[in-house]
Amino acid sequence: MAKQITLKMTVNGTDCVVTVHPFARLLDVLREELRLTGTKEGCGEGECGACTILMNGRVVNSCLVPVVQAQGAVVVTVEGLAQGERLSSVQDAFLTYNGAQCGFCTPGMLISATDLLNRCPNPTEGEIREGLAGNLCRCTGYAKIVDAVRAVAADGGAAK
Fold it and tell me: What integer pLDDT is reported at residue 158 of this predicted model?
């Protein structure tokens, strides 16, 4: 049995130290050790986007990231988008435009939409669809999600 290792990372603005199996996935550490259950496991193969997070400012599928790669990283999960009780503009738009139905894909969609709007504050519909392409949704048909992202862009972007 492999020896456990101790890692340090910043998750949603908080410095964290975890002692975990070196082959653990970042997704499992976030959910099981840090109790950040907003990030979901869908396929476990990096195809569905349910586990999407930001790591060092880049969108990643946390189900594919060995936790050792998160040593010293800055991680943002869906729980880190809100500021206290105040939802981010993207979260608020998803509620307003009914961009979430069953909700399983929503955390990954929110992370990807936030990243897109931070990189491209006024995206076209094509850019929105491309920015969300790594996230699968079985319920919405994407139209309401695209409407929500478009509304945030029209209102000044994700950083608002």
Answer: 62
Q: Which of 80, 79, 44, 85 is nearest to 65 (CA)?
A: 44
Q: What is the mean pLDDT of residues 70-92?
A: 96
CATH of domain 89-154: 1.10.150.120
Q: Where are the domains of the chain?
A: 5-80, 89-154
> In the structure encoding, which two tokens stand for residue 116, read together?
């897109």
Alpha-carbon distance of 136 to 30, in angstroms, equals 21
Residue 160 has pLDDT above 60, yes or no: no
Q: Which CATH architecture has domain 5-80?
A: Roll (3.10)
User: How would residue 30 be classed by pLDDT, with cut points 50, 70 and 90?
Assistant: very high
Q: What is the chain's percent helix, strand, coil content, to nearest 5?
A: 35, 20, 45
Name the 3-class secondary structure at 125: helix
